[in-house]
Specification:
alpha+beta; binds inosinic acid; 5 helices
Length: about 210
Amino acid sequence: MTIKRIIFATGNAGKIKEIQAILEDMGLEVLSMKDAGISVDIEENGSTYEENAMIKSRAVAACLRECGQLEGTVVMADDSGLEIDYLNREPGVYSARYMGEDTSYRVKNANLISRLEGVEDERRTARFVCAIAAVLPDGRELTSRGTIEGRIGYEEKGRGGFGYDPIFYVPEFGRTTAELTEEEKNRVSHRGKALQQMKKLLQGIVE
Ligand code: IMP
C-alpha cells in the first residue's frame, strides 16, 4: 500500500518531535492535527488505553475521509497513563484527569506520594503504559503497546519530562524519568517502545 504521510492525533508538539525522530527513516511526512488543519473534539471515554487511542484515530480518519483527504494517509493516536500497583493500578487510564485536568502535577504527585506513605520499596512498583492505534486508508486498524517498569519515589526529583516523571524512579538508571535526557527516555519509554512496535507493523504494510 502506498503511504505518503502520517497524521498523529495530538496537539502535543513534544510527542510529534519524538515520533518524527523514531519514524524518520520510513521517509514519511509526520504531521500533527494542527499541521494538517484538522480540529476535532474527541471524548476519550474508552476503558482501556487501546480503546481511547482507537477512538481518537477513528475520529480523525472519519474527518479526513469526509473531506476526501484520507488517501495515502495513516492516522495514528496514542493514549498513556501511570499504573501504581499498591493503588490497584490507579490513576491508569484516568492519569490526565486524576484530581482534575487543571490540577498541577506538583499537587497530583504530592497526593500520590502521600497515598504511599509508609509503603516499603518493594511494594511501590509502577509502570507507564502507552498504546498506539493506527487507521490505514483501506480501513485496516493496528494497535501496539509499550511499557516501562519502575517505582514511585519518596519526593519529586528532576526537571525534565512532564506529568508524573519526577516521581517515577527507574531502577535500571537509578534516576527518575524526569532526570533522564530526552534521548535516554525515548530509548526506554513506554511511548518509545510502542512507537517502535508500530513502526515494525507498518513496515510490513507500507511500500
Ligand atoms: P495522554 O496519553 O497524552 O492522554 O496522557 C495521559 C497522562 O498520563 C498524561 O497527562 C500524564 O499524566 C501521564 N503520562 C503519560 N506518559 C507520561 C510520561 O512519559 N511521563 C509522565 N507522565 C506521563
